[in-house]
Amino acid sequence: MSGADAEDVEQAQLGARLREVREYLNLSQQYVADKTGIPRSAVSDIERGQRKVDSLELKKLSRLYMHPVGYFLGEEDTGDDVRALARAVTDLTDGDRAEVVRFAQFLRFSAEAEQRKQRR
User: Fold this and answer.
1) Which Pfam family, giving just one, matches this sequence (predicted)?
2) Are 15 and 39 found together in one domain?
3) Is 85 part of a structural domain of the chain?
4) Which terminus of the chain faces fewer neighbouring Cβ atoms within 10 Å, N or C?
5) pLDDT in single tens digits along all 120 residues of the chain
6) Distance (Å, rounded) from C-alpha 114 to C-alpha 108?
7) Considering Cα of 9, then 23, then 41, then 87, what sign does the dihedral take?
8) For residue 6, what are the CA distances in angstroms to 10, 38, 51, 90?
9) Are both 13 and 64 inside the same structural domain?
10) Distance (Å, rounded) from C-alpha 43 to C-alpha 72?
């Protein structure tokens, strides 16, 4: 793969990650444009991998989406999920945080049960 091809792939992956998080947060492209000052058409082009995102735009998007810049760049770090979860629960009530913990325990129990079932 040539350097230009690799860059195109990275740009497409970056756009896909940005779109995935935006959609997960249930934000419209227009809302993102309004909050970041990046034109809506540019947000669309970035998400489709048709336009490069500059570092200041990526920082704005990262801040709005509450994810570290490294996540969007594919620089996976095992602590990213924990940090993202911590950021997500910061403004929750004590009751809501307890519910998140219960749900995490449920997911863990479900995963362990599934693993036991597969071993049989």
Assistant:
1) HTH_3
2) yes
3) no
4) C
5) 677 788 889 999 999 999 999 999 999 999 999 999 999 999 999 999 999 999 999 999 999 998 889 889 988 654 667 777 877 888 889 899 889 888 888 888 888 877 777 877
6) 10
7) negative
8) 6, 25, 15, 38
9) yes
10) 14
Structure tokens at 43: 């947000």
Do the domain assignments include residue 56? Answer: yes
* N-terminal to C-terminal alpha carbon distance within the chain: 43
> In this structure, what token pair is assigned to residue 9?
């792939």
Cβ count within 10 A of residue 6: 10
Beta-carbon-side half-sphere exposure of residue 96 (alpha carbons within 13 Å): 7
Domain count, the chain: 2
Distances (CA, A) of 27 to 41, 44, 62, 68: 15, 13, 14, 18
Which CATH number goes with the domain that contains 63?
1.10.260.40
